[in-house]
Amino acid sequence: MSQKILSINSGSSSIKFKFYQMPEEEVLASGSIDRIGGKNSEFSFSAHAEKSKIVKDIPDHSSAIQEVIEMLLTSGIIHNKSEIDGVGHRISHGGSYTKSVLIDQKVEDRIDELSVLSPLHNPVNLIGIKAFKKLLPDAKEVAVFDTSFHHTMPEKAYLYALPYEYYEKHGIRRYGFHGPSHQYIAERSVELFGKEQTSRLISCHLGNGSSLCAIKDGESINTSMGFTPLAGLVMGTRSGDIDPEILPFIEEEFDMNSHDVREMLNKKSGLLGISGISNDMRDLEEAASKGNKRAQLALDVFVHQIQHYIGAYATDLNGIDMIVFTAGIGQYSPTIRAMVCSQLGYLGVKVDEEKNKTNALSIEADDSKVKIAVIPTDEEIIIARDVMEVAGFSD
Ligand code: ADP
Most exposed: 7, 17, 156, 331, by fewest CB within 10 Å? Predict the structure, then answer.
């Protein structure tokens, strides 16, 4: 029997969704709502091979979800909202959850508690859950955590060198994020290239948020984000790793409180902080090509960090069979991919410049010892598959 499943991926001011016929994995409709909470929110919707875009004020996430259901009804994709059998929510921080779970009050409470660790995302994820519960009381709701895929990391990779009781009593450790994306890349790579070619894989998710994951035979063994999604690589507006002593220094020196510092690290740092121009890679590449030195510096620091993580993960994996680039920058920026690979010759990594320019699936040169691929990620299908499994629809 077929089910209709909605995958929901909520950000702090946006919602992306895909509506599937499962288990066929047919996308019936998809879309996104951006700038929720402000004036002129943008709702893009695609169904029956037609795309539409409307601009209207959508004040909050609950209203955004109502808009999505209304659009599914008015476009004739469903005739009654009871046709939606299940909803999968991408949840940012799952703490110690090692897999996706059916949402009940206990799960909701836990997601709420974990909001302290992911203040930008867990609260809006929770609003989504509550809104659907009200709108679709009979649908199965499933939580798919960004952190779960990384539960296979060994202790030595997730433990911080802090007093042990912080880990034991308060769960302060590396969790890692972008789980559904790295999982999709791991599974899709095997489908496309086979197990042997993908045994020691580095997945590079480079978007507004960026993280790398070392994947050994399909399992995460290390990843660059940490206790929160602020850690690791330089990102659009997030700092990534910095010397921890900088934080008390800034607080004391500039009389900033922890809220101000958190804002600065999450929203004013990264590519935007270094360049002073933009957090958007397209803007920075353009500015750098016209000679803007700080834009070039932002690119250089971004790439340098990625190269360091790849070197570290080559050690964790004892060599690399394959590197995959994904997400906005990974998928569409030949410049960044070429820059990253330019210092990896010692690992046998060699890019074919022509293939790289066209964002081809395989971009390694014939004599490269490492396979290099460009694969669009698909977090929503991982969410929909998990709904099928966890809700018992696959039985
Ligand atoms: P999010 O993390 O919000 O899902 P995306 O995966 O969509 O973000 O990635 C957004 C990033 O991808 C932005 O920095 C954007 O500039 C970059 N990007 C998109 N297209 C291109 C391109 N053609 N060249 C370079 N960068 C690109």
Answer: 156
Predicted pLDDT at 14? 86
In this structure, is the dihedral angle defined by the CA atoms of residues 69, 71, 74 and 78, taken in order, positive or negative? negative
Domains 3-145 and 193-374 fall in the same CATH topology: yes
pLDDT digits (tens, 9 = 90+) for 252-266: 999 999 999 999 999
**3-state class percentages of the chain: helix first, strand second, coil last, to nearest 5:** 45, 20, 35
Phi, psi for residue 390 in degrees, rounded to 5: -70, -35
Distance from residue 228's CA to the centre of ligand 1 (Å): 21
According to CATH, the topology of domain 3-145 is Nucleotidyltransferase; domain 5 (3.30.420)
332 ligand 1 Cβ < 6 A: yes
pLDDT at 294: 98
Helices and strands in the chain, H and E counts: 15, 13
Structure tokens given for 107: 């799960």
- How many whole angstroms separate alpha carbon 322 and alpha carbon 370? 5
Residues 135 and 188: their CA atoms lie apart, in Å, by 34
pLDDT reading at 197 higher than 90: yes
Q: Which atom of ligand 1 lies nearest, measured to the CA of 208? A: 2
Give CATH superfamily name and number for 193-374: ATPase, nucleotide binding domain (3.30.420.40)
Residues 300, 302: Cα–Cα separation, whole Å: 5
In this prediction the pTM is 0.95
Q: Is 146 among the residues known to form the active site? A: yes
% of the chain residues with pLDDT over 70: 100
pLDDT tens digits for 208-233? 899 999 999 999 999 999 999 999 99
